[in-house]
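Standup notes
- DV: blocked on the single-chain target, sequence here:
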Amino acid sequence: MNIQSAISREIFVPRDEKLLVAIEVRRRMKKKGLSFLNAGRKRDYLTYLCLSVTNSRPAQVLITKVKRYRGTRPFAKRSQWSVEQLRQVNGINPDKDTPEFDLVFDRTTDQWVASSAAEKCMFVQVLYHACQNYWEAKLAQANPASPRDQKIPGAPENKKSPGAPGQTSFVNCQQKLMGDACSVNMVIYRCKIFLNRMKNSMTANQGQPQREAAVKASRSRSSPSPPAVRKMGNVMRRASQVLSERGERLMRADDKTSHFLHGAKQFAEAAQKLALKQI
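- DV (later): unblocked, structure below
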């Protein structure tokens, strides 16, 4: 079971909410001079930013902060805001994919860094369309259409202004996150997230043989007898062989990852060209 499914089962299903997207995030440091102090400090918990919608009517769109402490299985809900409290989403850089983004609420501003640029883009994209649907539904409830205002086939649509009062504004966000090719971008981002998590998992597993070899070597050094020395040599040779094999597998996985990313970019370019032709 992946992280999003586990969070949905433990936090949102009991509250009768549907989880739309969940990404791993961390706080962005404001003072760069202290960044080296926090770089060496290991976090004792993981933070996830989740976007959900209630199953009850009228539906509410909610942003929830969930934490999971290391060494424990359950997730803990920390904070929750509705999109009516969300005033602005700042994508930081409108020209390229970056993991940084800001969420500005009524009484606070959260500065986040996602675990990857793809996760941030997917979250902003889903959040944008969820906000659009929420405000359109609320506007329709507040101003029910009369028979004379009903849509006539072939007539031009009356689009509401994006700067209407009370609505969430999206600034410094890439246009592709709010365009018509959203489904294509979503597939690409999910592929990138999967490949990034697979690469991180293999990198983390690579250090396990080193730790095992160090433990065995330290135990062998405690006994100065010749059999212990020979055993320590065998352990070191075996650890070296295991590390060599893991390194080769990691290099092959890295090559496959680069190949998949190249294929995803080609697929995105072809999809965008097809979308432009259909327009």
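- Follow-up: The beta strands are 17-27, 45-54, 61-69, 76-82, 86-90, 100-105, 109-114, 169-171.
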